[in-house]
Automatic annotation (TrEMBL):
<dbReference type="InterPro" id="IPR013154">
    <property type="entry name" value="ADH-like_N"/>
</dbReference>
<dbReference type="InterPro" id="IPR014188">
    <property type="entry name" value="Acrylyl-CoA_reductase_AcuI"/>
</dbReference>
<dbReference type="InterPro" id="IPR011032">
    <property type="entry name" value="GroES-like_sf"/>
</dbReference>
<dbReference type="Pfam" id="PF08240">
    <property type="entry name" value="ADH_N"/>
</dbReference>
<dbReference type="Pfam" id="PF00107">
    <property type="entry name" value="ADH_zinc_N"/>
</dbReference>
<dbReference type="InterPro" id="IPR013149">
    <property type="entry name" value="ADH-like_C"/>
</dbReference>
<dbReference type="InterPro" id="IPR036291">
    <property type="entry name" value="NAD(P)-bd_dom_sf"/>
</dbReference>
<dbReference type="InterPro" id="IPR020843">
    <property type="entry name" value="ER"/>
</dbReference>
<dbReference type="InterPro" id="IPR051397">
    <property type="entry name" value="Zn-ADH-like_protein"/>
</dbReference>
<feature type="domain" description="Enoyl reductase (ER)">
    <location>
        <begin position="15"/>
        <end position="325"/>
    </location>
</feature>
<protein>
    <submittedName>
        <fullName>Oxidoreductase</fullName>
    </submittedName>
</protein>
Length: 328
């Protein structure tokens, strides 16, 4: 068996350590498909994992990284053969199953999605879990029957990964997008992505009222806590908010008022264990509904040796848009 380079998280008496190291192929976990990983990405959850800021990692040693795009090397799964181009997100990879900041990975074939014909592997990882989650949120709003003629859509944490992609997708679909950010210096960037209006995060950080003035018909929230509570209180009658993140906290200091007096819906969006049919729909829609020029504007590229520092920056709110990781 050979070894390969990987970002490995270990835990000892002195606590968690993380760094680029050699990892023996014999230590890969069970799976019926072996991948040559070509690209990965840095999501907020990856940042939490490599910094140890939250208990994301559940086994040690762990190869970090929850996303991969690459090529099938070997397969005992009926749906995949050597040479197939694939994407994988979630399923506990980088948490309970060895992840993708590595030159090689072994996974279950049932976790894989074909790389859409119109996407390069690098593009897929520029999208990554953050962008795929944003698309799942948009699909949830559409399934609820919401359309751009109902009014504006708000996006919180708009300069982050989920938010940047959500702004770009919603704008392309014809929505008037109101982008909320704690980084006012990113206003021009958000307008380039398609935001019609940029508001300060502080507007959604004040004490929550049961009902506030109606401002939007839909929204994508990756912040949670007081921000989400205020967004709900400002949602128009019959509107809905897709919640997909907790950067601001896991609590939700709201009341039943938006739900029983305005018929507002709170739509939960999970990307980790999402069923395959929704994954495939999301990736096909990302292929058609995300402007590649806007994707390029929000993306920076690093190598494996830059992952740990990028993880620190994303947790500290210093990352704009998306980071792709070139493997090998």
């Amino acid at each position: 068996m050979s070894s390969f380079k990987a970002i490995v998280i270990r835990k000892g008496e002195a606590g968690q350590t993380v760094g680029l190291a050699d990892f023996d192929e014999s230590e890969l976990m069970e799976g019926d498909v072996t991948l040559r990983v070509e690209w990965s990405t840095v999501n907020y959850k990856d940042g939490l994992a490599v910094t140890g800021k939250a208990p994301v990692v559940r086994r040690f040693p762990m190869i970090a990284g929850i996303d991969a795009a690459g090529t099938v090397e070997t397969s005992n799964h009926p749906d995949w053969k050597p040479g197939d181009r694939v994407v994988v997100n979630g399923w506990g990879c980088g948490e309970t199953h060895l992840g993708f900041y590595a030159e090689k990975a072994r996974v279950k074939g049932d976790w894989l999605v074909p790389l859409p014909a119109g996407l390069e592997a690098r593009d897929a990882m520029a999208i990554g879990t953050a962008g795929y989650t944003a698309m799942l949120a948009v699909l949830a709003l559409e399934r609820h029957g919401l359309t751009p003629d109902r009014g504006p859509a708000v996006v919180t944490g708009a300069a982050g990964g989920v938010g940047s992609v959500a702004v770009a997708i919603l704008a392309r679909l014809g929505w008037t997008v109101i982008a909320s950010t704690g980084r006012p210096e990113e206003a021009d960037y958000l307008k380039e992505l398609g935001a019609a209006e940029v508001i300060a995060r502080q507007e959604l950080a004040e004490k929550v009222r049961p009902l506030a003035k109606e401002r939007w018909a839909a929204g994508v929230d990756s912040v949670g806590s007081t921000t989400l509570a205020n967004v709900l209180s400002m949602t128009r009658y019959g509107g809905a908010i897709a919640a997909c993140g907790l950067a601001g906290g896991m609590d939700l200091p709201t009341s039943v008022a938006p739900f029983i007096l305005r018929g507002v819906a709170l739509l939960g969006v999970d990307s980790v264990m999402c069923p395959q049919h929704l994954r495939r729909e999301a990736w096909q829609r990302l292929d058609t509904d995300l402007d590649r020029r806007k994707l390029a504007k929000m993306t920076e590229e690093i190598g494996l040796d830059g992952v740990v520092e990028a993880g620190r920056r994303i947790v500290e709110g210093q990352v704009r848009g998306r980071i792709v990781v070139k493997i090998g």
